[in-house]
Write a structure and sequence with these properties.
heterodimer, A: 196 residues, alpha+beta, 4-stranded antiparallel sheet, B: alpha+beta, two-stranded antiparallel ribbon, 4 strands, 73% helix, elongated
Chain lengths: 196, 162
């Protein structure tokens, strides 16, 4: 056999090994993703136990002294590989009954965005569960605090005056980055409160 | 090896490639169209499906055509090396077509009581890794063409001896 043929066979075997390895990793990764996502307990945002603190002077314009929240969540990596680049994006919308002072005289519900931020979390090893808290402080609310309505714009006869709804987007990479997974859940009622 | 056997060999490989590059993917994607996983419907429109099927069929036919010429050519011939190289290049385009036709991102719609959402599985990185492996194959095929050209006389002599 010519030496070039031997070289060719070596490269062919290398390519075969690479292809089989990537195929095996892809298959196991896909299977792991199914294992993680098929059990609802593996990804849990505990909205029943969210801790939301809001302290404001109900003047016109409104003065917000403090606003923060802590949302417990857990993530179980039930698959065969480490779970990397875990990032949780979180948006909160404020729903209130708006007193229309200037327009056509009709009151309406208003929905404004008050929070939009994302946080990265550490790698979760295979078979491990990560228990974490998603926290948002006043500084994280940033410019969105300006979206809070003034006191005289809120119809306080309604109870509750404010309802908070959240959108979650969770993104992660799996099986050495071969699979990217994103999970989004919209319009989750997380909290409600009144001015008085 | 006689020309008839070469043509039969080429035809067999064409049929194999038609199955693997056209029939199996088209059937899989057609079944996926109405598939529901654990009660979650796939967000997969008819337009997406038509787009994927078009590219898979178009490039699959070119691959199958190349496969006929590759496998019906004599072993270690320049013709075989050239068609094998073209076939690998078209294979890369075929793989890339999965990305640009939208087949690498599978999206499920979630509907949980009052809430809605989505679950997306992106396989784009996997396609890129496979393309990396294909790059090695391209290098090997280029090497083959050069080798078959340089050693043409020796290959012919060996073929005559057989």
């Amino acid at each position: 056999m010519r030496p070039s043929r031997v070289f060719r066979w070596i490269i062919r075997i290398l390519i075969l090994v690479l292809t089989l390895s990537v195929t095996a990793v892809s298959f196991l990764g896909g299977f792991s993703a199914i294992m993680i996502l098929s059990n609802p307990d593996n990804i849990g945002f505990d909205t029943d136990n969210i801790e939301f603190n809001f302290d404001a002077n109900w003047t016109t314009p409104i003065e917000i002294n403090n606003i923060n929240f802590t949302l417990p969540f857990n993530f179980t990596n039930a698959g065969y590989f480490d779970l990397e680049d875990l990032k949780v994006s979180f948006q909160i919308g404020l729903l209130y009954w708006h007193v229309n002072l200037t327009g056509d005289g009709l009151n309406k519900t208003n929905f404004v965005k008050i929070y939009d931020n994302s946080t990265s979390f550490p790698t979760i090893k295979k078979g491990k569960t990560y228990y974490g808290n998603y926290t948002g402080t006043k500084s994280d609310f940033g410019n969105f605090l300006g979206n809070f309505p003034d006191y005289d714009e809120i119809d306080v006869i309604k109870d509750p005056d404010f309802e908070l709804y959240a959108n979650f987007t969770l993104s992660l990479t799996y099986s050495l980055g071969l699979h990217s997974i994103r999970l989004g859940i919209y319009n989750i009622s997380i909290y409600e409160f009144s001015v008085t | 090896m006689g020309p008839t056997i070469n043509i039969v060999k080429g035809t067999i490989f064409t049929i194999i490639y038609v199955c693997f590059t056209i029939i199996i993917p088209v059937v899989t994607f057609s079944l996926l169209r109405g598939y529901v996983v654990e009660g979650l419907p796939l967000d997969f429109t008819q337009e997406d499906l038509n787009n994927i099927i078009f590219w898979v069929t178009a490039l699959g036919l070119v691959i199958s055509g190349c496969a006929f010429f590759t496998h019906s050519s004599p072993k270690q011939s320049i013709r075989r090396g050239s068609f094998a190289l073209i076939q690998v290049l078209v294979n890369c385009l075929y793989l890339w077509s999965y990305k640009f036709s939208g087949a690498t991102e599978i999206i499920f719609d979630l509907d949980i009581g009052d809430n809605s959402g989505f679950l997306s599985l992106n396989l784009q990185q996997m396609v890129l890794v496979y393309l990396g492996i294909y790059f090695l194959t391209i290098v090997l095929k280029v090497y083959d063409v050069i080798d078959f050209t340089i050693n043409r006389e020796k290959i012919r002599y060996d073929r005559m001896k057989e």
